[in-house]
Design goal:
This protein is mainly beta. The protein is built from 1 helix and 9 strands. A hairpin with a 7-residue loop joins strand 6 and strand 7.
């Protein structure tokens, strides 16, 4: 089994940092449905995916959201995962990866929730 070197990982992280991403909220792991990962995305209220940038921490091989991601107008739902989508032109994007929440939560109609900068991370 080959092990990736730091140069390869840093190259991937730098490349990934060049895209615009959208963050979505899900009631189950969207990666469990690779044909339609949006199937578990919450809907209702005034919920919409939020656009954010991600930055590469080349020292720690980490890829994290660079700003607060704030959601408002959430519907009532039990939220367990976030989805990270990369966008291309006017498309709704393709899922890059999904992350489980360390503390799943129940939202109420009209509630708000946010992800602190650096909190949504992928460690390579």
């Amino acid at each position: 089994m080959a092990i990736l070197g730091d140069a390869t990982i840093n190259g991937w992280l730098t490349y990934l940092s060049g895209f615009t991403y959208q963050v979505s909220l899900h009631t189950s792991n969207p990666a469990d449905n690779p044909v339609n990962p949006a199937a578990s995305e919450i809907s209702g209220g005034t919920y919409t995916r939020k656009t954010t940038g991600f930055t590469a921490d080349l020292t720690n091989n980490k890829f994290s959201n660079s700003a607060i991601v704030a959601f408002d107008g959430l519907p009532a739902a039990y939220i367990t995962h976030v989805g990270i989508w990369y966008t291309s032109g006017s498309s709704s994007g393709s899922m890059a990866f999904a992350l489980p929440l360390s503390s799943p939560f129940t939202s109420t109609n009209g509630s708000t929730w946010s992800i602190a900068a650096g909190e949504s991370s992928l460690l390579l």
